[in-house]
Amino acid sequence: MPLHVACRVDDANKHEYDINQIIFHKGKLYSAADDGKVKVWSPDLKFLQEVQAHPCSIFSITANDDTLYTCSNDGTVRSWDLNSLKEKDFLIKDEEVEFWKVKYDQGVLYVGDDNGNMRIYKNETFYGSINVAIPVKDLVVKDNLVIVAKDNDVIVTDLHLQGKKPQFGVTATIVGRGPLLLVDDKSIFMSRDGRDILVNVIGDKQHFKQVSTIAGAHDMIVNGGAAANWDGSILLFTGGWDKVVKQWKIENDSLKADGSFAVDFVVNSMVDGAKGHIYVAGSDGHIIRLDV
């Protein structure tokens, strides 16, 4: 069945300005936008609740079992009760930097800023920081590999957190840019011009091998993407400034076009939900759910 809109947020409850990130966590969709708000939605995009988390743009959000984390260009990282959205803590306040990315993975919170520094927290306790050479616009984690990107390069860092302080070393610098996506043994990102899709296999020795490229996958820069393995079928979804969401199928390390859908807004962020559901968010607070 081709991609189609199953539901959409209503105009009365949507964000006032552009949405920068959405995550699907524990059966709910969380959105963060330039209006400084976090909004929570049911799987069918019914409005549930919101909080004015920051006075200005929220660049990124992430969550664990009971806490939502937000970061902003106001120089703060804050934590919120996942269910009530009541404030828990001012985790960081540093007016000298903008915090661009937060990512929670396996008990560790990673916080990246516009100076290329990444702060690491265990159980909300500061553990240490490293410099990853580029401003951290996007960040994903696979085992002991931390992968970051901005607009020109993808930096792969081998990071170990067992000692008294982080032990790390850069293992690869790859020409490319976000969005960064992981699915199974594959890392997917864009070329520097933001229009070509690059598929890499992460080998046994953590070596990145490019196995597939789709040149000119989009007519304009891709801002968001989602990758999912649904019952052994690996699907990739991409969207950006051309206002088109495209679906791709990954088989035998190759990427094949598998459908598309034109939306009426610039796509900034995408995430997969339940099987067959892709959430798409972007300009002027719009969010839709596309069903496959």
TrEMBL record:
Official protein name in the record: Uncharacterized protein
Organism placement in taxonomy: Eukaryota, Metazoa, Ecdysozoa, Arthropoda, Hexapoda
Organism of derivation: Zophobas morio
WD repeat placement: 51-84
Alphabetical keyword list: Repeat, WD repeat
Ribosomal protein as UniProt keyword: no
One matching Pfam family: WD40
Top-rank lineage group of the source organism: Eukaryota
